[in-house]
Amino acid sequence: MDMNEKPKVEEKVEEQKPQEVPEVEAPKLPDTKEGKLVAEVLEKAPYAEGNVRRERRVEFKVPADRIKEFLELASEKFEMLIQISVVDWLKEGEFELVYQLWSVSESVHAFVRTRIPRENAKMPTVMDIWPVAETYEREAHEFFGIIFEGNPRLGPFILEPREYEKHPLRKDFNMLGYVKTIYGEDFDRYDESKTNYVI
Amino acid sequence: MSERKNDEFINYELQEFKLFEPLFKWARKKSLWIVAFCTGCGGIEMPPLATARYDFERFGIMPNPAPRMGDLFLITGYVTPKTLKRIIITYEMMQDPKYVMIHGSCPINGGVYWDSYNVVKQFDKYLPVDVAIAGCMPRAEAVMDGIMEIMRKIEDGTADGWKRYRENYEYYRKNQDELFGEGWREKDARRWLAWI
Predict the structure, then answer these.
(1) Among the four given CATH numbers 1.10.12.10, 3.30.460.80, 3.90.110.10, 2.60.40.10, the one describing domain A33-158
(2) What is the dihedral of CA B26, B29, B31, B33, to 10 degrees?
(3) Which of A67, A121, A169, B62 is within CB 3.0–4.6 Å of A146 for a Cys-Cys bond?
């Protein structure tokens, strides 16, 4: 073959198909037991968002005013409440409540997330769905100051009364100042300039 | 009851029988019973101490659930104010002579919880301490070393925390009241122990 000879390039005329405008759809759920479970729950509750994180782990996002309704619906599939945990988002000014549910029949762990404003945070109690929620709600109330309407036993639970008033797990709780007032001279390892921490 | 008799009654354990005192010290040294009151993380170091490798029953030590029969009080790890109330009441229920040993950095100066709102710094301010073991967590060898140290101190007569608690009771009581507020014994401890 000569070096100068160029290889022939077959020119294909591509037929341009008219592109279909894809409709905005929810992310497709995988064809597993988790995906079917989420699809079943979302059929009855169209206001919620749900997705599958990984095997045996699903996640729902629910607006705060529909949370009671959603949890009553979800309690048919998820029979157990494992924990109510709270995340404090200080910059957004919101508390995020995470209801962790466990499905005994399907062995799937679900997060149900909801966000409420930080000031005068109020939630409906879920004691009538899962009686164990009473303890978790008392704890969340003590550490973050969220009021669960309908729970009769809110109040000082684990901490001392003076700590209960401060809600010590909030992000705006000035822990170093509090420790200085309580422990005084014992608290000798804190440097105001924050250059010298001795741990 | 006359005043002299009352003093004798209160200070009965402080009487020393000169002739038999070495024998008594030896007996106390060889029969340290631990009050089974584990705070914080140090409780997990007790099973290796009690089982075959560092078998503490060689030294006549045994865990006992009753404070009335205990000699040695192990503070194993961090102490919260809520636990400190129970510790103080339990310590006062123990019979003299009684010895306190603290494990780890947290009861000494706060340890890793130096800036925590509910961990007591300087346990020494609230109850007298005989032996302190530094470390986080001290392993069973270090605890055995502390126990040997406390045995030496009992033989020397320098393990006198229970005497110091009697002599400086106002100081310890003042610190306890500063932390818990006045009248905490009547408010809290009476719910657990009706006779206080």
Answers:
(1) 3.30.460.80
(2) 150
(3) A121
